[in-house]
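May I ask for a single protein's sequence together with how it folds?
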Amino acid sequence: MNSYFPPLQSNKMDKSDKPEVMDNVKVVVRCRPLNQKERSMGHKQAVSVDENRGTITVNKLETTHEPPKTFTFDTVFGPDSKQLDVYNLTARPIIDSVLEGYNGTIFAYGQTGTGKTFTMEGVRAVPELRGIIPNSFAHVFGHIAKAEGDTRFLVRVSYLEIYNEEVRDLLGKDQMQRLEVKERPDVGVYIKDLSGYVVNNADDMDRIMTMGHKNRKDSHKTFIRVLSIRIHDRTVYTICQTPPPSQNRFLTSRVLTKHPVAFCISIE
């Protein structure tokens, strides 16, 4: 089964609670709190976060003569930020756009130990500690459960890892196989022979994530991991015409299909 990565399209949003147009790229910064080891060693927080202004100030604690530097981002989160707040303010608009038929990408980047895995995955067994990926699962399947009319959804997931320009399918049967990145005029860039699993609920997605985690490589090296969630949205419009009694019923259908995809990417 081949999966492909079509070009990213611009997003649109619900006018009721969001701006009509969302920037194609937003940069969000989350600063984690000091861990127990850092506190025991007497370290101090080197950054100050102003969530209202969207700024982060880096303080040079080791020198007093150098002024602090302030940086502005689309959104910033301080050490006390909650998982659900991070999801609702950053990832939810992207998943909403995917459910409307657009592609979306959530890309986590940072040094080792900065909290990427906690932000993206969190603790799946504890609802308030779930990260962006499991919250996305719940969001997608909650939307599908509320779908009305003749709209049907098929959700397919792929999970891959890139290291030293080698692509490996974390859900594939042969973990020694290296996949090739290809390009076709009709679908764009895709990964040949990348497996895809159909999932019906958030529990299925959780099992897929667990299976992929078991196949991940040494976390001390730098890997790019991509979780691809492709949503096939098929809406069937049916037109019925009542014929004369001597004829059979005439029935025509028109199928409109969208294939948006959400990419959850983490560099570890």
Notes: Residues 3-24+87-267 form a domain with the Kinesin fold (CATH 3.40.850.10). The chain has two domains: 3-24+87-267, 33-78.
